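Quick one:
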Amino acid sequence: MNSSQYPLEGCADKRRSGSGKRKLITHHSSLIIPLKIAPRLRAIMRQEYPRFSDAEYARRHKALAAAMQEAGADTLLVVTENRSGNAPQWVTGWPGTVEAYVVFRPGEQMWMTVEWVNHYPLAKKMCAHMDVVWGEHRGPEKLLAELKRRGAKRVAIIGPLRVAKYRALEQHFEMVSLDAKYIRMRTIKSAEELDWIRIGAAMSDAGLAALMAGTKPGLTERELGAIVESAYIKHGGTTMIHYIGVTSMKNPHIYVPPQHHSPRKVKKGDMVFCELSAYWWDYAGQVLRTFTVEADATPLYRALYETAETAFDAVTKVARHGTTMQEIVDATSIIEKNGFTICDDLMHGFGGGYFQPIIGTKSRPAGPKLPDMTLEENMTVVVQPNVITRDQKAGVQVGELIRITKTGFERLHTAPRGLFQVG
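Output:
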């Protein structure tokens, strides 16, 4: 494989600052990026257990009450079960851990049962504004009793509940799902939510900086994962994902970063690509980069990389409030023009979940039709051209989380862009 097979069209040739252009060159650097946090964000991080303002929770509860009224529901059940479901955290501030059932009614004190008993003390402390009880390994029974005590008739539900438990509730109440409404509430971010996302983005950038500074021949992919986590755990961050792929540039064997690390060791002449997301509680950034190890990029990888960067610039150039899905797909045409395609989704909503718009390209669509929507101000989306060869032997990852504005986009990450060389 060589780049003569892939004549490049329309690739960027000037250095970029923010949303401007930049020259695509190979850098020789160990890149150490400090945790870049604005003073107002550091104040959030200094809280023992960070919470949003009372006004922010009131905004959310008002939105929930409106959705309940529209659905004709008198009571709302919000669920985390078996560590799945983030709505209790959004509604109450409690991360949910193993199991949390929240009963919400406008104007009344919220009630929540949690498991396990050793989780109960912290839940009670973090949610002192509500009635928190230990589930005693019979949380569904306690939930049923509380719903009956409140005289519930038509119960709306947000979050995953096992079929048997759902059917048990159906024997007593009329049930209606508000999951779609909840997703809509999470899609557009408030000013406070954006600040928490900025902290998550800074944590993710710190993980990337550590990865690039620490990568060297002889380390395994598993050790690279440990290096990433070491950068933000000390600041209160937690891991959402760190997908890291390592492959020879001369004889590549993967084209998208895998979700689990292997014991494969880094070698001189390798290419490393990654997708990193560190949480600040329920709010994560996402940064995707590609770099080489003690060697210049081969012609093929340079062609892949420059195509990916040009696609990122083209998509972000059209991104703004009101952008249609077709405009985004049209902006990716450079990928096919240069003889490549993609594996990973080109764009997806992010921040509280993996949301629409989920978009691919002409050669690899994300579904049978484009989402029936436009971009909106204060959506946060990841633009991530995972440009690959059509034979699925080689690929790169480029991109990051951005905020959509009225007239364009805001970078939420500060990690430098470029095809870097480490070692």
